Each structure stands twice: as structure tokens, then as C-alpha cells.
């Protein structure tokens, strides 16, 4: 205190003491909010949507995310766990970065105190002149992008899309096949970010915390050999272009003016429509917006056909020797693992991915092919199961549709033979019901039964008119009893309540 009095006038001493006490102690509640209890964060005037909402805290856990996925996706337990954990930690990272930005912004808005700057601090302007090191910034958590490997039609993109929907974050999906280097015919990689901006309704701040899924990622692998010195514009060139976007950079996105119908038309958006750009995004006119990709999560998906052979060769070489463990042999008590689960960065590099991009995708997960039993579960178990969709579709026309257990098993067998995963189920069901979907609406047909013979394409589905419900129930029960008598598990039971309600609503003309 005596030192302060010797250097400055006594009239300024209270100001210095108050300033030093304020910045060396904890912030007072009045410095953050005028009313209410103490808060250690700056409240934004605009509501934050998604996992950053409700005061900025992440209200989810990996376990909760996986439980939600279980309602929509059959199987793939390991991939669900990995994806749920990766997305959870990504938004924890985004939340921590936003909190730090808010603290820095609040500190920058505080009025500076001219009495706190003494002559010694004014003199320390040259690099190295200070005795102390400049304080390092706060700990920064790096982003962990995800690679999901596996065959088509097993739920890779469905899992990502479902998680993005439940978190209420912008999501866009782009196919890597048309991507080319800048300046060549094709799409630039920036288009993936542009699609995300559109999904975020041109709200830049929301887009900067969204999720981009790049499908067919294996299609931009380097060719095994290039002849004649040709430039690889759609393989390695695209991978190089993706590097800066994945790691985090600022992009200049050119937005186009939206075409809207005249006011008064049915599709014309009213006041407050979500088609209108929000604050912080682009306006009605075409303009250039800047997007920072540092907090955008990139999830790459692809079949990577041939990668399992690369992995098997590597594992086989590692098992040669007197004391080496033979990885290729499996006992009867331990089922054989999916080879893609053993993927290492070197395998992806051998496949044709450049080391720089492989190093920026630290999280890798592999999905499994769907068996016939799993395809039956895809038909019946998820919340938006394919069987429920068609039951509801018929119910809207006042017709009750029902599949027997052996019929569902036959549908799954036919889809499995197509080799397109769960996507083959819709193809098979469409073929089975094409005649019924044409004949039943507007006629006396009120019940349609798909039995095993119809599912095997040996006959058409069975039609029952109004007043023949007892015959319909008897035919269904007879085939179910035969199916169970053969030692099989009954797959279907009574129709869902939602379907019955739809039948009643359609029958009453609602």
C-alpha cells in the first residue's frame, strides 16, 4: 500500500484497489445478470437450438443416444455404441468451446481501466522483453471425425440421420462419387458444406455445429496405378481438397436467392416460416457467407469392397512363425469376427486413402451384414418398420393387411438373396402387394392376407370382403398354428393399435 502511494496520487488509489480486487477475485453476480441467482455464463438473447440448448448444457448421454437408436435400427450394437459416444463427445467439445468464447467475449466487453496500466507494462512491447511467458490459451479438445465401414443396406446412414434428428442439429448427406478437384467438371467438395447451410435454413451459427455425412467415401480412393501421367482429379485430388475442410477452415459459400411462390398460393410460406433465413444467415438475395468448419462433425461411410482381403492378408502375415498366434483360426465357442472390425490406418492407406486424411479420422467402426433373422426383425421391430408402413398404407383405404409368420420369413429370404441388405425388403414387398394395392381400394375388399404361398409367388394374396372377417382370422390362425407346430417362433401377432385406429378413421370417412 505504501508503494502505491509513492507512485500515484492519493486521489486515484481507491480506483486502483477496486480495479485490482475486481479482476483478481471471482466475478460478482451483478456483473453477469441484473436479476436472479449467480450464473457463471453469459446468457444469450437468442435461444440456442439442439444439444447446446437449455442453458448450453448437453442433456444427453451415449447410453440415451444408443437407446434411441435401438428403436429405429436393428442390430449393429457395437457401431451404435461407437457412434453415440463419438457424437456425444463432439457436442461436449462444441459446448466447451462455446463457453470459452462467451467468457472471452464478456471479458472483452469490460471497460478498460487506464490507471491499471503502469509505465513498466508500456515499456514491455518488444518480443522477449517480458520476464514471464505469455499465458497459453485454455485446453482445446480436438475434433474426432468418424468412419463407418460396411456393406450397403445395413443401416450406416440411417444411424447417423436418426442421431442428427433426435439432437435437432442440421444434417446433410453428400455422395463423394461426383466430387472432383476445383476447376474440373463435377462438384466441388464445398458443396457438402453448402448443403449443410441449406439444411440449417441459412443460419450460419447452426450450420457451424452440424453433421455432414459423406457417403461412398471409398469411391475417392487412389487408383492402383495411373498410366501416362494422368492427373487423378476424382481420387487423390478430392482427398486433398477435403483435408482443410475436415480439419477446420473458413469457407466462402455463395448462396443463391430462393425462389418462392407468390403470396396466397398453398405453398407460400407465411410469417415466421422456417423457410425464411434467420439472423446470422444469408438473406433473400444471393450473397457470400463465411462458414467455419472447425465444429462440424464429418462422418464418412462406404462399403470399402476389397478392404477385408487387405486385412486378411495382413493378419495372415502376422500369424506366420513358431510362436505367432494364428488369428485365422477360431474355436467353435468363439464366433468369427467381422474382418472390418480389425481395420487399421495402414489398411486404409493400402486401399488408396492418403495418410493425411486417414490421420484426421481417428474413430472407425464396422457394421455387419444382415442375416435372414435380422431382416425379419427389420420388417417388424423398428418404430418405423416396413410392415407397419404398408399396414398403415392399406388402412388409409379401409383395408386391413396382414402377413403370416412364414410369409415374413420368405420375404426376408428373398431380400437376402438380392444382396442389397434391408433395401431389398421394400422391393420384395412392393412386388407382392402390387396387385392388391391396385385392386383393393374402393372395392368390397376389406382384408388382405399374405401367406407363405403368396410370399413364395405361388399364388396371389388372399382377399376377403366385408363380413368375411372370421374367415380372414381363421386363415391367419391356421397358418400360424402350422408354423408353430413345425417348431418355429411366431413372428407376428395382433395388428398394431395404430393400424386399427387408421382402419376406423378411414371407414368413418375421417
UniProtKB/TrEMBL annotation:
- Could you confirm whether the keyword Cell membrane appears in this record? no
Q: Where is this region: Disordered?
A: 256-285
| Pfam families reported in the protein's UniProt record | AAA_2, ClpB_D2-small
SUPFAM superfamilies this protein is in?
P-loop containing nucleoside triphosphate hydrolases (SSF52540)
Using the record's annotation, list all stretches that form the Clp ATPase C-terminal domain. Answer: 370-464
Q: Which domain of life is it from?
A: Eukaryota
Spell out the Gene3D superfamilies in the cross-references: 1.10.8.60, P-loop containing nucleotide triphosphate hydrolases
Q: Does the keyword Amino-acid biosynthesis apply?
A: no
MF term (GO), any: ATP binding
One CC-aspect GO term: mitochondrial matrix
Query: Can you supply a Gene Ontology BP term from the record?
Result: proteolysis involved in protein catabolic process
Q: Which UniProt keywords apply?
A: ATP-binding, Hydrolase, Nucleotide-binding
Name the UniProt record assigns to this protein: P-loop containing nucleoside triphosphate hydrolase protein
Lineage here is:
Eukaryota, Fungi, Dikarya, Ascomycota, Pezizomycotina
